[in-house]
């Protein structure tokens, strides 16, 4: 378990699809521990393996009181037609924030640490974070989907009452 250095844009690993996990062994548990340590050390709410330079489809989402969601080889099964636009940022694109439109409800199929299929439905903020992290596994950054960049001043204004 260790905090790993973050990979930031424009690094080629962030712009290509990474490989499926095929071996569900101790190395995956180690990778998940490293991702978790790195995410928390950088005050993140989600992180994907390419963000620490690892060429595998593994991502984590901090679901706060519900713990850490581990996504291994995740695929989106369904997405709601209803969408919402909200501001996103990314550990791999420091200092950039922008509005991104995403589905408010998704169903995801993933693997657990033992390689078993797991299916889950997520809503609102959690759905947004999962979609953001899955995008990383396919070489897409939120900046590729951003409809408008938001300045740090605008961001502070938006969240000053929270």
What can you see in these coordinates?
The chain is α+β, with helices and mostly antiparallel strands and 162 residues long. 26% of the residues lie in helices and 31% in strands. The chain is built from 4 helices and 8 strands, in the order H-E-E-E-E-E-E-E-H-H-E-H. It has helices at 26-41, 124-137, 142-145, 152-159; strands at 46-48, 58-62, 68-79, 83-88, 97-103, 105-111, 117-123, 148-150. The strands form 2 sheets. Strands 1-2-3-6-7 form a 5-stranded antiparallel β-sheet, sandwiched between helices. The chain is globular, with a radius of gyration of 15 Å. The model has no long low-confidence stretch (mean pLDDT 95).
Termini gap = 33 Å
Mean pLDDT score, rounded?
95
Strand order of the largest sheet: 1-2-3-6-7
Percent of residues in beta strands? 25-35%
Residues in helix, %: 25-40%
Radius of gyration computed on alpha carbons: 15 Å
Report on the biggest sheet: 5 strands, antiparallel
Please tally the helical runs, counting DSSP H or I stretches of 4 or more residues: 4
Structural class call reads alpha+beta
Succession of helices and strands: HEEEEEEEHHEH
Shape: globular
Number of strands: 8
